[in-house]
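Why does this matter for the project? Reviewers at the last site visit asked to see concrete outputs rather than summary tables. In response, this paragraph embeds two records directly. Each consists of the residue sequence and, immediately after it, the corresponding structure tokens. Nothing has been edited or filtered.
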Amino acid sequence: MEYNSKTQKTGNSSPARRSVGPVLSPERSVAFQIRRAHLAFDRLLTVRLNRHDVKSGFYNYLRALWIKDGITQRDLSEATRVTETTTVALLKGMAAEGLIERVRDPQDQRKIVVSLTEAGRALEPKLLPYAAELNEIATQGLSKEEVEVAIRAIKKIAANLEMAFGSDD
């Protein structure tokens, strides 16, 4: 027997389907639209990074190190908002490609300090302009005010989601 959303028998033997409320279409979904934009940014950035034989997963780490070099793996993980496990795996790849060095902190041997090599530092003037280019592409047809509103809204959305961690696990 099948039961409808009010748990009444319907005579159908297929599995029950519960009503979950109104369905949010992808066109009206903030999550879907942000993911769509993220994927497009990532595809465009990957094409540009490939010109320099740089893996797309390395870019945010390089950018964080261009801002502040010689930081711990934990600080780098926090700066990129990526788990430490993922950070360690990507840093191993970056070290193998000669982009970074990892050394124990002389003051605290438990910590690993990550620094750019000359090769990693030399990529900054080549790769950093891509960030401005992609932002220019993404904001075509938008006024400066619309861009500022969008940035404020996305920051607030991110903060709301980050605050929800732990409250609903």
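We now turn to the second protein, recorded in exactly the same manner.
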Amino acid sequence: MTLSEDFWIKIRTPGLLVLTGLVVGCAGSPGPGDAGYPYNVAGDYSGSLTVAGVTMTGTIQVSTQPGGGVTGTVSVNRPIQINGTLNGTLAGDQLTVGIAYGNNPATGCSGGTMDGALTISEHGATISGAVKIADCGEILDATIDFSR
């Protein structure tokens, strides 16, 4: 018995529809760094860093890479100038960061670090949370609150 050409035409269209549905269904939702992911951070943020009751202002410039890696720069500009680099990982609405900065004129130290888990608001509008600062061998609690 041979299958007619008419048979193959009849099953081709439904078969293509099922295959398309499987491909789209398996694609899943976007992940960190993918277009459409609701917690990607990108662009320029301004805000504050509060340490021991002293609020400093500055900027953060960041971008989310495919897979959730986050890179950027940090600049505190009032009341002192401190510049650093930011590296982190985005998972869900949490951004785990490590910030390495250079000379701190307030303490005279040649550099330090800030580490913490920050919360990202939907669509990346705000970055905020607690960090630990290591500066001249001292550990300080601080909070970050930045927005676009």
